[in-house]
Specification:
The complex is a heterodimer of chains A (232) and B (428).
Chain A (H helix, E strand, L loop, with lengths): L1 E14 L2 E14 L3 E5 L6 H8 L7 E6 L2 E2 L5 H11 E4 L11 H11 L4 H14 L15 H13 L5 E5 L7 H18 L2 E6 L2 H4 L4 E6 L2 E7 L6
Helix pairs in contact in A: 3-4, 3-5, 4-5, 5-6
Chain B lengths: L2 H11 L3 H41 L2 E5 L2 H4 L10 H8 L4 E16 L2 E10 L1 H7 L6 E4 L13 E5 H7 L6 E7 L5 E12 L4 H6 E5 H8 L12 E6 L5 H13 L11 E5 H4 L1 H39 L1 H9 L4 H36 L2 E2 L17 E2 L5 H27 L3 H6 L2
Parallel strand pairs in B: 3-8, 5-7
Antiparallel strand pairs in B: 1-9, 1-10, 2-3, 2-6, 2-9, 4-7, 5-8, 6-7, 11-12
Helix pairs in contact in B: 1-13, 2-11, 2-13, 2-14, 11-14, 13-14
The chains are: A alpha/beta (232), B alpha+beta (428).
Bound molecules: adenosine-5'-diphosphate and magnesium ion.
Adenosine-5'-diphosphate binds next to strand 1, strand 2 and helix 1 of chain A.
């Protein structure tokens, strides 16, 4: 099933009098179950594109379909509901809630999704195991390393089994080993739980592990290839 | 929503401990001051009322119809017996007595003083007023008159000074009777009182009611039992309006003995002495205006704090939004935080105020230095003022500060809820 479809999507940023077209007519589709990398140099429009797909930002022009529905004109509240019910985000800079512990950060995303407190806690503990940092459960973000924080962010993003996880350069701030470990976790979730991943990167080692690679340059998605060596 | 939202709110409050503490201290001091001010104001007012009530006004009075309008001497209750009974049966009654009021001139030698002559039941009067306790020289009116040729009068110290009289001196009274004729009689100074209130001390004399009636009702047998007032004193804080109404009802239902040609009026002290009520109401308005101003100052401070707190956390709101938190929940989060701060400030303030109240009840405040004010006011300012705790009034300050806090947080909360997720996330 087609999860996301962008049709001729433009994004124009205005800073004072200066206008800049970050996206210049992007056409792109994403199917359920994909593990896809969005690759392109810095400033090519990766973040912009992910934000628009995730309903964090709005396209200036063009159509964004999510599960077949045109979300371009949705209200802020309706978009927040879409994020709540369908999407998990992983950011380059982790973006955990600073006043909450690791476990509470995961719980929060479940509580917001109307989970019962007891079940949320159970699920959080389960996820802490899955991302292999159960011992960090009660630590606050500022007491954790970047890699640990990003694992929590991954756990948080996938906690309620969203239809789609958008990860914006998830490994950019991590060393190679940590980055690899994180990707392994993401792969496992994709394989075992069927979570769809779309992640941006410009790290070749990360690109290597994608099943499909979409390339973006100067705000246009150029190439799109399915990587053969992966068994779907 | 969930305790987790409260946990976020709670921890956020203490993230910038210094700022939160400053905000809360401001609120605590404000509320504490207000609470104490209110208890003190209520105490002063209650004592003012009590003092006026105890110095003769009573809680309520029953008059012949329209007597209050002009105090015309002929507007009397002709047969007060049944009225007295009804009055005594009123719930919460402390005392009941009758009075006859006359205007006259009191002279001694060449000196004279225009005065109100109040005919009282010497015993009954002590149940409704404390004039007997205010006697500084001699004694209060005796229960029975032993010597018809030496009728007793009790006057104030001001009058005694003006007339240059001492205990036992002879006073000559010229009194207007019921029919308009002028009567003359002689009284002997039996006691001298001092209330501290200029008017009272200078221009009132108390005499036994029978002796006054005799002078006033020469040749009018109808007025044999006449009185102007049946005065009722209720226990402190008894339901005044309720008492007035219950007496009114019973009188209207026609329980009165025949013979009273006029209808009767039942008046609360507020109707008899509206000036005192107005003075207290104005004073209260003053307190509330001051409270309002304080609230505005505090509100400005709180709003500033919350705006700063919101600004510092824009990125965090972005995170919450990226998780799918709807704008309404962001709004709620800020409001919950402000509510928690308001709650702490309000109740800690209440505690401080109550400590102030408690200390003040052990160390009452005296207005002695203002005692010249008592000339114009209906009360004795030489007394010490104790605060009175009326929860309903005190909670106005507590509720007020919580409402003010929520109002002050409204704008910051709206601002936070209107943040655009991407922009909020990019904020550093
Ligand atoms: N809020 C913004 N205002 C103005 N220009 C922006 C804004 N966000 C991004 N841009 C510009 O849009 C282009 C694409 O940015 P971005 O999507 O962040 O690229 P990437 O994530 O691939 O590095 C860049 O040139 C960037 O400077
Ligand atoms: Mg980027």
């Amino acid at each position: 099933m087609t999860l996301v479809e962008l049709q001729q999507v433009w994004k124009t940023y205005k800073t004072g009098k200066i206008e800049y077209d970050a996206l210049r007519g992007v056409d792109f589709t994403l199917q359920e179950g994909e593990f896809t990398a969005l690759v392109g140099p810095s400033g090519s429009g990766k973040t912009t594109m992910l934000n628009i797909i995730g309903g964090l930002d709005r396209a200036t022009k063009g159509t964004v379909l999510f599960e077949g529905e045109d979300v371009t004109k949705w209200s802020a509240t309706r978009l927040s509901v879409m994020r709540l019910e369908k999407i998990g985000f992983i950011f380059q800079s982790y973006n955990l809630v600073p006043v909450l512990s690791a476990r509470e950060n995961i719980e929060l995303s479940l509580i917001l999704r109307h989970w019962h407190a007891d079940e949320a806690r159970k699920r959080a503990d389960e996820l802490l195991e899955a991302v292999e940092i159960a011992d960090m459960a009660n630590k606050r973000p500022d007491e954790m390393s970047g890699g640990e924080q990003q694992r929590i962010a991954v756990a948080r993003a996938i906690a309620d089994r969203p239809a789609l996880v958008l990860a914006d350069e998830p490994t950019a701030n991590l060393d190679t080993a940590t980055g690899n470990a994180l990707l392994t976790i993401m792969e496992k979730l994709n394989r075992d739980e069927g979570v769809t991943f779309l992640f941006s990167t410009h790290d070749p080692r990360v690109v290597e592990r994608a099943k499909r690679i979409a390339t973006i340059e100067d705000g246009i998605v150029l190439k799109d290839k399915v990587v053969a060596h992966h068994k779907l | 929503m969930n305790t987790l939202i409260f946990r976020i709110a709670w921890r956020n409050i203490w993230r910038n401990t210094r700022r939160t503490v400053i905000t809360i201290v401001t609120m605590v001091v404000t509320v504490g001051l207000m609470v104490w001010m209110i208890t003190f104001g209520d105490g002063v007012h209650e004592q003012m009322i009590r003092s006026a009530l105890n110095l003769g006004l009573g809680s309520l009075q029953i008059h012949a119809e329209d007597y209050q309008d002009d105090r015309a001497v002929e507007k009397v209750i002709i047969d007060p017996e049944r009225v007295l009974e009804i009055a005594r049966e009123t719930p919460g009654v402390e005392g009941v007595s009758v009075r006859l009021n006359a205007f006259g001139l009191i002279s001694h030698g060449n000196a004279s003083q225009g005065s109100m002559i109040v005919g009282v039941d010497p015993v009954g009067e002590t149940t409704i007023s404390i004039m007997d306790e205010k006697i500084k020289e001699g004694e209060w009116l005796p229960e029975t008159i032993e010597n018809e040729r030496r009728l007793p009068i009790v006057i104030g110290s001001g009058m005694a000074k003006k007339l240059g009289v001492e205990l036992g001196d002879r006073l000559f009274l010229t009194i207007q009777g019921f029919t308009g004729d002028v009567g003359y009689t002689v009284y002997f100074v039996h006691g001298i009182f001092k209330t501290g209130m200029g008017e009272l001390d200078k221009a009132i004399g108390y005499v036994p009611i029978g002796s006054l009636r005799e002078v006033m009702a020469v040749d009018v047998p109808l007025f044999q039992n006449a009185v102007h007032e049946v005065t009722v004193l209720l226990e402190p804080r008894e339901d005044l309006a309720g008492a007035v109404n219950s007496i009114k009802e019973r009188i209207e239902v026609g329980e009165l003995a025949a013979g009273n040609s006029r209808e009767l009026d039942v008046l609360s002290w507020e109707e008899i002495q509206p000036g005192l009520r107005t003075f207290i109401d104005l004073d209260e308005v003053g307190i509330y205006i001051m409270m309002g101003l304080l609230f505005i100052v505090v509100a400005a401070g709180i709003m500033n704090t919350f705006l700063m707190a919101v600004f510092e956390r824009i990125r965090e709101f972005g995170i919450l939004m990226s998780l799918g938190t709807p704008p309404s929940a962001i709004f709620k989060l800020v409001m919950i935080e402000s509510f928690l701060v308001g709650l702490i400030g309000a109740f800690a303030g209440l505690a401080l105020g109550l400590i102030g109240y408690w200390v003040n009840s052990y160390y009452p405040i005296s207005y002695e230095s203002f005692s010249e004010m008592s000339e114009v006011m209906v009360m004795d300012l030489s007394i010490k003022f104790y605060p009175t705790l009326i929860w309903g009034n005190v909670m106005r300050a507590v509720g007020g500060i919580i409402i003010v806090t929520l109002l002050a947080a409204l704008w910051p909360a709206i601002k936070a809820s209107l943040l655009k997720p991407v922009e909020a996330l990019r904020h550093v």
